[in-house]
Every structure is written in structure tokens, then in C-alpha cells.
Amino acid sequence: MKLADDFYQRIQDRVRARLSEDQLDGLIVTVPGDVAYLIGFFYAVTERPVYLWFGRDGSRFALLPELDAEYAAAQGVHADIRTYFEYPGVRTPEQHLADELAKSGTPLARIGVSGALTIGARAALVDALPASSFIRTRILSDLRLRKEPEEIELHRQAAEVCDEMLGAGRALIEGALRSGGPLPTEGDLAREVIGFGTDRMYERYSHVIYTTKLAGDSCTRGRMRHVRTGCPADADSRSATR
Fold this sequence. Notes:
single chain; 2 domains; six-stranded mixed beta sheet; 12% strand; 8 helices; 6 strands; Creatine Amidinohydrolase, Chain A, domain 1
């Protein structure tokens, strides 16, 4: 199951309404979960930043490292895709962002940012956009508190997989007790549970996107038959599609 286009249209309309209410020209979105919520782009965090611009005037684009452009296009993201070639490069990603915003001609006096924006990233944005004021806003975090019916259905499916994963861990312990052998270690349980969850995701869905860790550091110790850079998306994910 994948969220339909009208889901993102509804969310984006609500964000624009809030931007008008708060007299903000737009948002610069940097939190991966917020990016996924707003345009349907799921990605793993690296040293190469992703910036999503979402303007009150209807302008919107995701600025990505060139390496992620094909990956984003394959997901059918609900925003234009702009890229910078490499990181750190001669020009910073924030300078590239300023270039793209200048091309769009959108107003930039008051820009909303998440409270999760790091001090370093904020300083880089201030340097790149010195004429703009950056206002901390809860627009996206407030909207995400109330789930749409489509999101609730995906939460239900994610909970089913999680329940099955817990069952796999319990079965491993029960098998050890019946055999009289040594009990599984924490690492053994992590490999079994995460590996089982990975298998179930691939059995249930045709399109599994790896983003961030599923359950702490144990994710990096998953079964080797599924060699990936991350773990299946968690219960708040909209990344698994049938």
C-alpha cells in the first residue's frame, strides 16, 4: 500500500493555510520524517543534507545530493527535484539552496524552520540567506499529531509485523528452553527478530524502502541474507508498498 496523491495534496493544502495564518513565506524542512510526510520522499540520513523548500506561493522543491536524484524520482515524490553535485564541494548545499530559491523568485522574508534544526545548519542557512528571518514553527509537528485514515491503516499493518517479530523472538527463547540448551543472547535475539521482520516486509510488500534504524543498534546486526544499509521502516513509515 502506498499513500495516494490526494493524501499529499490535502496535507500540502493544510500547510499552505498554516503558512498564511502565521505570515510565513515558506518552510525549509530538514527532518526526514517531515520530508516524508509532506512529499513522500524517504531517505537515509547521511553527511549530505537534504533540504525541502515548501513555499506559501505554491513553489516546492527538494534539494538533494546528485547521488539520491534517481532514488527520489523512483519514489514519485510530490515536489520538484533539484540537486547539488557533491559534498562538501566548492559551494555548500546551503548556497545551492539559495541559488535555487533565487531562481524561483519566491518571497523569502520570513522562513519557518523546525525546532530540530541544528545550530550548525541554522548558521549555514543564515550565511546563505542573510536577508531572511528564520522563525521556529510547529506547523508540521502539529499536523502530524492527527493521523489520516490512510496513515492509521499503515500503522495497523506495521503493528502486525511488529507483533510477528516479537513472536519470533519468543519462539527462539522457547525453543532453547525446550532443548535445554543455552538461552539466546541479546545479539541472537536481535538477529532473529530483525531478520524475521525484514523477511516479512519483503513477503508482504513489493517496494520496501530502507531509511533509518528499526530498533536501536541491533538493526546493524540483521541477517546477512538481506544486505542493506538500514532496516525496514518503522511504525510511522509510509514507505512499504504492495
